[in-house]
Design goal:
The complex is a heterotrimer.
Chain A (H helix, E strand, L loop, with lengths): L1 H40 L3 H15 L3 H15 L9 H31 L2 H9 L4 H16 L1 H14 L17 H11 L4 H29 L5
Helix pairs in contact in A: 1-2, 1-4, 1-8, 1-9, 2-4, 3-4, 4-6, 4-7, 5-6, 7-9, 8-9
Chain B lengths: L11 H31 L5 H4 L5 H38 L3 H16 L2 H11 L9 H26 L3 H9 L4 H31 L11 H12 L2 H37 L10 H10 L13
Helix pairs in contact in B: 3-4, 3-6, 3-8, 3-9, 4-6, 5-6, 6-8, 6-11, 7-8, 8-10, 8-11, 9-10
Chain C lengths: L1 H21 L13 E5 L2 E2 L3 E3 L5 E2 L1 H12 L7 E5 L5 H6 L5 E2 L7 H4 L3 E9 L1 E6 L15 E5 L4 H8 L5 E5 L2 H9 L5 E5 H10 L4 E3 L7 E7 L6 H13 L2 H10 L16
Parallel strand pairs in C: 1-5, 1-6, 9-10, 9-11
Antiparallel strand pairs in C: 2-3, 3-4, 7-13, 8-11, 8-12
Helix pairs in contact in C: 2-8, 2-9
Classes of the chains: A mainly alpha, B mainly alpha, C alpha/beta.
């Protein structure tokens, strides 16, 4: 168990970084997902087209490519940086950007499916009392749609948490140069070829600890906030 | 509920407003496009010699076609193995013997819950201690198999679960063994009804081959640095590769739509007994998610 | 019945898996007595590199061929095996390879487990920068600079710990991504052994330079199983290669255009 005493704290630090990646990407992908979903159901055709194009493009492009592009294309070629001087900050936020944009298209599609579960009468009643499109969406349809998609949204967030591992493509570290979980696991395996199974189990369990609560909370919330019809 | 129910059919004023909003949206879009264009322009992305390599056959012969081969061979082998894995563990999990169903469930849930990239890395690094030559192709393919196979196992299981009970009961009543009931009655119907979901998972699998890039497996993404090394055109190369992925996924999507349309039709003619052939894949998927197995479904780890 | 069927399926799958695992495994230990299995790197340009046409090239490869020839093996009797850094001792111990030339540093720790002939080259950790860079003069001039290395390597961490506390580290999965980013001016330097850096500089002559202030000493040796009877013979061969020009030729053929000059040959250590 030398591995634990030697690298235990580094492993914890890297899961802390993975958690931060997941939390920020989760928040931004939910926000962006709501915007995209609004675009896709809006009365303005141009907005619907934009929404559809963004979703189609990013859903069909591998996340690894999106991630790669943020650093090598956006930052290196086009000169777009979150922080010109501090590498670790720039790379962290580029990874959050890639994860957020990519995940938001899945959030958008889940929300759209949720909107489809809201009974026609709800939207019709809202229109009958004179609500506009945005009022209708904000006050009547989305609150119900969100409640009905808690579980599928949790699936998306769990997948997103696992997808933070792809950040290794651009090398995301803390200020003290500790890698996020997948980079950390890779370097530990490279250095301890006799303990590969143990290292793998540690990281597998780490991800279960990160993702299981999302499923449990979602299961509880889905029951708690279920729309009674 | 279709989108149009969210708002009234626009009157004259509404139409005018929509035009105004459209114009604003177009203006913003044009503004963003101009920023991208001028950034590209300032960094020389529009220079012809960054794009003309893609019109030459050498670029395709030396980079894109080999990359495409790498991607498609990992996809093909990964898909076959994942389907085999999915069937074995779906049947295992549905087994009446706990000695089979519990271990199957553990395997499926384990592989669904960990990031596929970590699986691939593990297999990659585990080869040498096992006395094998490190082979990145099999690390990628086995990673694809274990994760997508586990998801497919759940999809197939959901398909079987959504069949009417009478199907299995009728099989038992005419003296079939549980194995025969599964093989000759339940699986064929489940597969037919879940085919669209199965193909959707294959799209995920195709995109997930790109994780091989991180292990330096020579697939499509890995050609971007190589092409860039030759022609100094990273952004055009990345755009071309993205378009190839979008095209591949579009083709698979069309296959899925075609199959879905076909299975609907077949469902009415070939399975006149009850709703046997007409299990709604979306409902079965939703059932999966409702059970709290919220690990990804068709979203996959490639999401 | 049901169980048998599942067992059969599982068996078939396991078979598929094992076939899969063996598919391209040509490194098996079934070679006859007339073959020599040599461990090299497959991914280091200029040192040990597997070309896209399946042939092998590099300084280590040429030196290995020279030594094998001296031991009485033809080129076609050599079986190349990929030796990854972490597994070199294991490979020598379990007989997967007969010898290793893979940027393999002689250390006391390793001497306890395996035998070494040589050294045949003295490398040192150094820095690769763009050819027009003037402000990086050594590992202590990296404060605030962006230094690249590969995941799992300790060389960049060493710079940070011992020389420039304010250095920023970027890790990629391969050195070639580092090279590209330095070429574009996004990163300032990359670090590893100078001869490895030379291999990358060789690929794009004129674009890079090696700072030339090595801050460690790595004696590359030929790794052999403990108690190997060929050790003295190989030491003789290494000394012979210094004298008959084969050593210099191996370097110039593979690294001659890198702008990195061939140092004096080391003294063979017959411990």
């Amino acid at each position: 168990m030398d591995l634990i005493s030697e690298s235990g704290s580094a492993i914890l630090t890297s899961f802390g970084l993975t958690l931060r990646l997941a939390v920020f990407s989760g928040i931004f992908s939910l926000l962006l997902g709501v915007v995209l979903a609004t675009f896709r159901v809006s009365p303005v055709p141009v907005l619907r087209w934009i929404g559809a194009a963004v979703v189609y493009t990013f859903r069909n492009t591998p996340l690894t490519l999106v991630m790669f592009f943020t650093l090598f294309g956006l930052s290196y070629q086009l000169g777009f940086s979150f922080d010109k001087d501090l590498l670790y900050r720039n790379n962290f936020w580029l990874a959050v950007l890639a994860l957020s944009v990519y995940t938001s298209t899945f959030v958008c599609e889940v929300l759209r499916a949720g909107i489809n579960t809201v009974p026609l009468g709800q939207a019709e009643a809202a229109r009958a009392i004179g609500l506009t499109f945005t009022q209708n969406l904000r006050l009547v349809v989305l609150p119900q749609a969100l409640r009905s998609v808690i579980n599928p949204l949790a699936s998306v967030l769990i997948a997103m948490t696992k997808n933070t591992t792809v950040a290794v493509t651009i090398g995301v570290t803390t200020a003290t140069m500790v890698n996020e979980a997948s980079g950390q696991m890779k370097s530990l395996m490279e250095r301890n070829s006799d303990q590969i199974l143990l290292i793998f189990i540690i990281f597998a369990v780490g991800f279960m600890i990160l993702t299981l609560p999302i499923g449990f909370i979602a299961g509880w919330a889905a029951k708690r906030f279920a729309v009674i019809r | 509920m279709s989108a149009s129910v969210l708002y009234d059919a626009p009157g004259p004023r509404g139409k005018a407003l929509n035009w105004v909003y459209s114009a604003i949206a177009l203006a913003v879009l044009a503004w963003v496009a101009w920023i991208v264009y001028s950034k590209f322009d300032a960094t020389g992305q529009w220079e012809a010699d960054k794009w003309t390599p893609f019109l030459k056959s050498e670029t395709w012969e030396n980079f894109l076609i080999p990359g495409l081969k790498g991607t498609l061979s990992a996809f093909a082998v990964g898909a076959v193995l994942a389907l085999a894995f999915g069937f074995v563990f779906a049947v295992g999990r549905l087994s009446q013997s706990r000695f089979i169903s519990i271990p199957s469930a553990v395997v499926v849930e384990f592989f669904r819950s960990i990031p596929m990239l970590l699986l691939m890395m593990f297999i990659y690094f585990m080869q040498q201690p096992l006395g094998l030559e490190t082979n990145v192709f099999w690390a990628v393919v086995l990673g694809l198999m274990l994760y997508n196979g586990s998801v497919l196992a759940e999809v197939i299981r959901a398909g079987v679960g959504a069949l009417p009970k009478g199907q299995a009961e009728a099989g038992v009543a005419i003296g079939l063994s549980p194995g025969q009931v599964m093989r000759t009655i339940l699986l064929p119907q489940a597969v037919r009804s879940m085919l669209p979901a199965i193909i959707a998972q294959l799209v995920v699998l195709l995109k997930d081959t790109a994780l091989g890039f991180i292990l330096a497996y020579s697939e499509l993404l890995n050609q971007i640095p190589k092409i860039d090394g030759n022609f100094d055109n990273l952004i055009p190369a990345a755009i071309v590769v993205a378009l190839i992925y979008i095209a591949l996924n579009t083709i698979l999507g069309l296959v899925a739509n075609f199959v879905e349309a076909r299975t609907r039709r077949v469902g009415h003619t070939a399975a006149p007994v009850g709703r046997a052939g007409a299990v709604d894949p979306v409902a079965a998927e939703a059932e999966l998610v409702q059970k709290g197995n919220a690990t990804g479904g068709t979203m996959g780890s490639g999401l | 019945m049901k169980f048998q069927k599942i067992a059969a399926l599982v068996g078939a799958l396991a078979l598929a898996g094992s076939l899969a695992a063996c598919g391209s495994d040509d490194s098996g230990s079934d070679a006859g007595g007339d073959k020599i299995k040599i461990g090299i790197k497959f991914d280091q340009p200029g040192l040990g590199f597997k070309e896209s046409d399946g042939s092998y090239s590099g300084f280590d490869v040429d030196m290995a061929e020279y030594i094998a020839k001296g031991l009485g093996y033809d080129e076609d009797q050599i079986q190349w095996v990929e030796a990854v850094s972490a597994n070199r001792e294991t490979f020598l111990k379990d007989g997967t390879v007969d010898m290793i030339l893979a940027t393999y540093s002689i250390t006391d720790e390793r001497k306890a487990e395996v035998d070494f002939a040589g050294p045949y080259y003295v490398a040192g950790q150094d820095l690769l920068v763009a050819a027009d860079n003037t402000d990086i003069t050594g590992p202590e001039s990296l404060d605030g600079k962006k230094l690249c290395s590969v995941t799992g390597s300790t060389s960049a961490q060493k710079v940070k710990d011992e020389y420039s506390k304010g250095v920023q580290l970027q890790e990629f999965d391969t050195y070639s991504k580092c090279v590209g980013a330095i070429e574009n001016g996004q990163l300032d330097a990359m670090t590893t052994d100078n001869i490895i850096l030379a291999g990358f500089a060789q690929q794009d002559p004129g674009k890079f330079k090696i700072v030339g202030k090595p801050f460690s000493e790595e004696n590359y040796g030929v790794g052999l199983p403990k108690g190997s009877k060929d050790r003295d013979k190989i030491n003789d061969l290494i000394e012979k290669s210094f004298e008959d020009g084969a050593w210099e030729k191996a370097f110039n053929d593979n690294l001659g255009d890198s702008g990195y000059e061939l140092p004096e040959p080391p003294t063979v250590d017959r411990y």
